[in-house]
């Protein structure tokens, strides 16, 4: 069944309705120079169509990333979510330094995308790295076969491996972050003067992106889920290891030895175990002390690019 109104045409599923609404919101949002009267009419039409499609199971032939977009929300809640997401963007730079801007971005992400999880870090003094780690939509095209992706902020709209929703989210994040930036660089004279460099991505090489669908609230008493209590020894080991683990390397030099390292992934999901190397004996000793306090005896194989191994 295909439905249309004065603003919505060729709507064949709830995902298509949400996609169309977002495009109209970008065009007519009052904070982006749009007409508030037209936006109000769009909201009315959306509400009527939402009531028709919200309980239907029609799915588009091609996944767009809007299938679970604010799933479970009412029509009014959805329009409020989108309004907040596309609120005013301006030239926000007023002399803020990079650490302050990173904090502003973290706060904005929590308010704008409360269901999503991000990693916002600073790389040195002049770079901000923003990664989308989990959300309720599939960000990659079905035939891409990838589990993480570095996003070029200058070519988001033409990035063929991203779904429409992923392009939209990453563009919105880029616009907000860059509103705190300035660029007085002159490439002709090799002069570079910018507040910060921005890096965007979806998932990481050591922690792939994860689709997390919203939980549906069930009426009545919920069944209790048994959780095995964590013992003191297990907790101590977990805290000492952090994200690392001991494993075997495909190496003649360390054949049969348990080496401290971390799991990394190729873009297509193949997992690799990579050793953690230490060029500072002092830094390595701090890790050794933590591990020994947890009951794990280990030693460093060398002071330059050495690795840590279990000591028997």
UniProtKB/TrEMBL annotation:
It holds the Pfam family LPD29. It comes from the Bacteria. SUPFAM superfamilies: Chaperone J-domain. This is J domain-containing protein. It comes from Prevotella sp. GTC17262. CDD domains: DnaJ (cd06257). Residues 1-87 form the J domain.
């Amino acid at each position: 069944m295909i439905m249309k109104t004065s603003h919505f045409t060729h709507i064949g599923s709830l995902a298509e309705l949400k996609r169309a609404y977002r495009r109209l919101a970008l065009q007519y949002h009052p904070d982006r120079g749009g007409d508030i009267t037209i936006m109000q009419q769009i909201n009315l039409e959306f509400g009527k169509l939402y009531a028709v499609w919200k309980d239907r199971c029609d799915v588009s032939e091609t996944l767009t990333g809007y299938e679970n977009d604010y799933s479970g929300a009412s029509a009014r809640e959805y329009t409020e979510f989108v309004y907040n997401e596309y609120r005013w963007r301006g030239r926000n730079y007023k002399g803020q330094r990079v650490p302050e801007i990173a904090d502003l971005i973290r706060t904005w992400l929590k308010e704008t995308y409360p269901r999503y999880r991000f990693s916002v870090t600073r790389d040195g003094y002049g770079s901000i790295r923003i990664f989308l780690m989990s959300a309720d939509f599939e960000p990659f095209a079905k035939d891409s076969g990838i589990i993480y992706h570095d996003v070029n902020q200058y070519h988001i709209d033409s990035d063929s491996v991203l779904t429409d929703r992923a392009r939209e989210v990453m563009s919105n994040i880029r616009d907000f972050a860059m509103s705190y930036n300035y660029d007085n660089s002159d490439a002709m004279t090799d002069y570079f003067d910018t507040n910060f460099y921005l890096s965007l991505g979806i998932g990481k090489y050591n922690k792939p992106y994860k689709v997390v669908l919203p939980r549906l609230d069930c009426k009545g008493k919920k069944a209790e889920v048994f959780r095995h209590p964590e013992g003191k020894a297990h907790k101590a080991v977990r805290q000492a290891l952090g994200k690392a683990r001991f494993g075997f390397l495909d190496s003649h030099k360390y054949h049969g030895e348990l080496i401290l390292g971390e799991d990394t992934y190729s873009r297509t999901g193949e997992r690799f175990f990579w050793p953690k190397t230490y060029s500072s004996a002092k830094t390595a000793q701090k890790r050794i002390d933590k591990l020994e306090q947890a009951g794990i005896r280990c030693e460093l194989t060398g002071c330059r690019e050495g690795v840590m191994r279990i000591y028997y």
